[in-house]
Design brief:
Blueprint (H helix, E strand, L loop, with lengths): L2 H15 L21 E2 L7 E10 L4 H13 L12 H6 L2 H7 L6 E11 L7 E2 L1 H8 L7 E7 L4 E2 L8 E10 L2 E11 L6 H4 L22 H19 L6 E2 L30 E2 L6 E2 L1 E2 L5 E2 L17
Parallel strand pairs: 2-3, 2-5, 4-6, 5-8
Antiparallel strand pairs: 1-9, 7-8, 10-11, 12-13
Length: 313
Amino acid sequence: MASSTILKLLAIFSLLVVCIASRATPNSLVEDTQTQLLKYHKGALLQGRISVNLIWYGKFTPSQRAIVADFITSLSPSSPPQPQPSVAAWWKITEKYYHLATSKTSSLSLYLNNQILDDSYSIGKSLTQDQLVDLASKGEKTNAINVVLTASDVAVDGFCQNRCGTHGSKSTAVKGKNKKFAYIWVGNSETQCPGYCAWPFHQPIDGPQSPPLIAPNNDVGLDGMVINLSGLLAGTATNPFGNGFYQGPADAPLEAATACPGVYAKGAYPGYAGDLLVDKTSGASYNAHGASARKYVLPAIYDPSKKKKKKKK
């Protein structure tokens, strides 16, 4: 492998796991953890072995479902290991939040569990937030993250206007005890707002214009969904119940992935995703290897263990 290629791999890997957010003020991130960009609000984090259940609402092809299923599988270390930079190495940065939150040995591992298909649009093609939560409730009720994925012809309140997906939690009674499960919703924006929710695989709606990248799995909508899902998973792991790691108002928090907006590789700036790797055969861009020889574009995660030095006066 040429030295320039090795350097590029190292730069991309470093960026994915070490993102000092540009939103930080110039003299922020001083040496104690209380002044970290993302403050810990003392709430519980997900721990142990957690199932990820996919609820597919609307029409998705088997190949489309496989893109997301393989991504979830990629979050766990595999044997043999995935080539670097890998999805598993990207996800490992979330462990640092657990180290900051508790002195006890704790960890989170995710595994793909059930996939529920609702291709008959059982509650219509225009959904509210409450209906999304109802759909998420079809998954497991304990030790679970239930992910609702809506098809490209399904309208959701706020979709494309101010969000591409959401995450939250719901309380439910399980064997007489009150339990909480985490949920995520992500919409397929291919036909509704690809320039907003599927960038950089589509020309942006506004702002600096740059040529769209070729999607690594040749599906603008689904590759865009993976970008949004991955960021929401990072937010769910580090702020599952609204009182974990975040900055700003609790109802509109800055979280682990949203602290690094639009950053996918070294050299990123508004309108430019960064110097991503490019597949020599397909011309597709990517920054992480996954299961089943897949490639993905994933957002940078803010690394809470990295601190900027104080600016000298």
